[in-house]
Amino acid sequence: MLIEVVNVVILALLAVTALAAVRLNDLFAVTMMFGIYSLLATIMFVVLDAIDVAFTEAAVGVGISTVLMLGTIGLVGRRARKVSHRPILPLIVVIITGAALVYGTLDMPRFTDPTAPVHQHLGPYFLNESPDQIGIPNVVTSILASYRGYDTLGELAVIFTAGIGVLGLLGLRRRKRPGHEGGAR
Amino acid sequence: MNDNPVLRIVAKIIIPMILLFALYVQFHGDYGPGGGFQAGVIFAAGFILYGLVFGTEALRSAVPPHILRIFIALGLVLYAGVGVTTLLMEADFLAYNALSQDPVAGQHLGIFLVELGVGITVGAVMITVFLGFAGRNDP
Fold first, then answer.
1. In this complex, do B118 and A185 lie within 8 Å of one another by their Cβ atoms?
2. Taking a C-beta distance cutoff of 8 angstroms, is the pair B25, B42 a contact?
3. Under 8 Å between Cβ of B38 and B122
């Protein structure tokens, strides 16, 4: 009972934070809203017992991305430009897409349903076999680094690509030599 | 850059703790929550705090960009290199069992190296992205 109340409260706060982030005009406040959103998502993951995911969300969503967005605000200014037109068409597209996604979830097994396919085949296999096959206590690490090593390699390649993309777009400004005036920005 | 003494001293005290915690998360990921992704981000957070308080020029002297660029590639090369090594040992790509006589010890070694590769690349990319955004504002 208590867990349902916590879930409902957190989901309601997530919705409120998202709406506030959409409606606010001050980009600094929007960034703070995104930080709060990530923090609420972290709590959600802790409630769901997904500690590793919560850890990542706390470090990346709350920490680094907030700092990076603040750095971007430092470049572009903190006021959002007023939108002159009414975005009716995007609203319709978003509502239809959202309705399709909600319709898609109706086919999914109920939350915490023990007869769900995921709890019949792969879940028990990883939990039962990984102590003998891998021998480390954290099953998440076993799955991430060993059973699903290809996927993690792909994720790392994505981060690598993002890094060199930022390097290519923004560049790392060379340090100015002493006595050398100006220089390209 | 920032002349507030409280901020500077507190930053100097907690930056080593952040880096130490990142190393703990990196190497304790087999036993508790954590791993390369989180450790890389936390490690980068320590450097980013340094950059925020002491200025991006100081951060650039602490971690020169050309070294960062090497580390960005090094992590991915380490990860893929483990896979190539297992291939050369006549096993499947990233089949860590081949890394040692004892399959479980091979798994431990493989996971350790792979997580280290993830941590190196993630940390270097995060610091690079921060320098890319924050470094452009300097006069």
1. no
2. yes
3. no
Q: Are B98 and B88 in contact (CB under 8 A)?
A: no
CB pairs under 8 A, 24+ apart, for B103-111? B103/A133, B104/A132, B104/A133, B104/A134, B104/A135, B107/A133, B107/A134, B107/A135, B107/A136, B107/A146, B108/A135, B108/A136, B108/B30, B110/A145, B110/A146, B110/B82, B110/B86, B111/A134, B111/A136, B111/A141, B111/A142, B111/A145, B111/A146, B111/B30
In a mutagenesis test of the B interface, which of A31, A62, A134 is the best target, namely the one with the most B β-carbons within 10 Å?
A134
Yes or no, beta carbons of B94 and A166 under 8 Å apart: no
Determine whether the interchain pair A55/B33 forms a contact, defined as Cβ–Cβ distance below 8 Å.
yes
* Token pair listed for A23: 């409606």
Domain of residue B120, residue span: 5-137
- pLDDT per residue over B95-126, tens digit each? 888 888 888 888 999 999 999 999 999 999 99
Say if CB B8 and CB B2 are below 8 A apart. yes
Indicate the domain borders of chain A: 1-84
CB contact under 8 A, A146 and B35: no
B15, B101 Cβ separation under 8 angstroms? no
| Shortest Cα distance, chain B CAs vs residue A30, angstroms | 18
**Tally of domains within chain B:** 1
Residues A66, A31: contact at Cβ < 8 Å? yes
| Gap between the Cα atoms of A66 and A132, Å rounded | 41
Distance, in Å, from the CA atom of B2 to the CA atom of B16, rounded to the nearest integer, reads 19
Contact B18, B49 (CB under 8 A): yes
Mind listing the pLDDT tens digit for each residue in A5-54? 998 999 999 999 999 998 888 999 999 999 999 999 999 999 988 899 99
Provide, as residue numbers in chain B, all residues whose Cβ is less than 8 Å from the Cβ of A60.
37, 41
